[in-house]
Amino acid sequence: MNMTNDLTHAPGPIDNDGFNGSLNPDRLGNNYLKWTAAAHWIDRDGLTPPSPLLIFAIDEALRMWKANQPTIIREKPSPDVEQLNAAIPESEWERGIDNNPRKPWEHIVIVRLVNFSTGEIYKYEAATTGAHIAYDVLKEQVITMRALRGTRVMPVVNLSERPMKTAFGMGRRPHFEIIGWKTPGDNVKAVAKPATPQLAGPAAAPTEIPPAAPASPTSSPADNSAPPRQAKPKAPVKLAGETLAAMGEVKPLTSEEIFNDEIPW
After folding, report:
1. What is the pLDDT of residues 109-130, one digit of tens each?
2. Domain boundaries of the chain, sorted by first residue
3. Buried b vs exposed e over 58-91: b needs ≥16 C-beta within 10 Å?
4. Which of 6, 101, 110, 119 could form a disulfide with 93 if both were Cys (CB 3.0 to 4.6 A apart)?
């Protein structure tokens, strides 16, 4: 599997990276992200995920859990989820965490993110109302920015949360806080290579070296040797900075672009 191609050119006759079409959610990544009002954002190990992250693709699908194994339908347009559930007798429905029968099929939103420092890919898949709101807001922002910039921009985000009205009052929901925009690394010029070493001129005549002074009777050969040179430690490479430097910059929107006119004052 070519990871670079998966990140920048998903399969399909067009640039089908999830914002324009559909992405196979099983191709990349095995570290799931989860958001709950109690734990907030955590990864599969229950740890706080890194930030910021780059979102490179999104998708939607239908999913059914049976015996702790998921079945996913990715075809577009998706079948009607209510018809799929109606075709399964309620006696065969599994029970949810509230011990009530749970509809087998659910509509899920899918977000794929990558860590700038390590290249690790994360999956976020959820069927909650809050997840759908976060997904819709994210998709609208990306489509808008791509339409105005005319290029394949990708959002850099912090994993955040926002307030949300629920049937039980105000609650919280996940949110992808966009803090910047980038274009894929293959859309920018390569980093300049170091200059080619120049050929040296004629060698200078050797300088006569005076004979060394005789060692004193009390000195040892080690006394006349120069102290060994210690190699200087190399500065650590900041992988996140190197990755960001290789990607293209995207200018923020102006008021004129948003309203397609100049402000009248």
Report:
1. 999 999 988 889 999 999 999 9
2. 3-191+238-259
3. bbbbbbbeeeeeeeeebeeeeeebeebbeeeeee
4. 101
